[in-house]
Amino acid sequence: MKTFVLFVILLCLTFLSISKSETCPFSQSLVSGASATYYTDPNAGNCGYENLMGPLGPGNLFIAALGPNLYNNGKNCGQCFNISSPYTNRSVVIMATDSCPDSGYCQRSSHFDLSTQAFDVLGAQSIGVLEGLTYYKVPCGVNGNVKIMMKDGSNDYWTAFLIYNSKVTIKDVSVKITGKSTYTSLTQSSYNYWISPNMVPGSFDVRIESVGGEFIYITIPKVESRKQYETSSQFSVDGCVGTPSGPSGGLGSPSTGASIGTPSDASSLTLYALFSLTILFLVMLN
Question: Topology of domain 147-230, per CATH?
């Protein structure tokens, strides 16, 4: 009987561990064959963060402009990536803050146009184009809670929202106007603002949904051009590999997640756990 109870306890602990490993809100599959160039004026990128050292930016210059495939019409704005290089055997964590629409290298399926600070970690600028890079997505270790700003020119009948300081990318933003019972989903623009063309005077509720399906709510008293608010919470990234920590969210840190390697596949982990428990059970029976 004691053997059976021990087996059940081990089984429960194993599946609790498996469940935790599956909670990362986005895929962390390792991607190979990426390339990178660099550019020298990374401020005022297409994602709307303006000055990178300002209140909307990441607070450092370790950023990238993404080619059209990765940029995906703004859906990867604010996503952080861990990029590894065979030239230096080092890796760097960057945040996507801009798009790279050039007709050359940026048209590749996985291309990063990096700030010089990020590029220098991966290779010498004299090389020009770095080939054979690998990367995977990681959470951004930002400080504080998710924030929201209303675009300049916003008024009682039209506004647009920028969601920033989030550990993960945003799947949807919706608004419930005073007197209404339902939320209305907004359209994300290619410059990363969520457009609301049907506002009315007065307070309203905003619902922010992460790429992992988690929600954050905030009530805003009125539309006010360039007014910024901090929500009361941050999205969870439990179970993600290579979660940055410390000031600036680990951006630019060559050691952040650099030795993690390819994240484990959940189904493989499950099979491995079941196999291990079966062997353990047979040993205990003997």
Answer: Immunoglobulin-like (2.60.40)
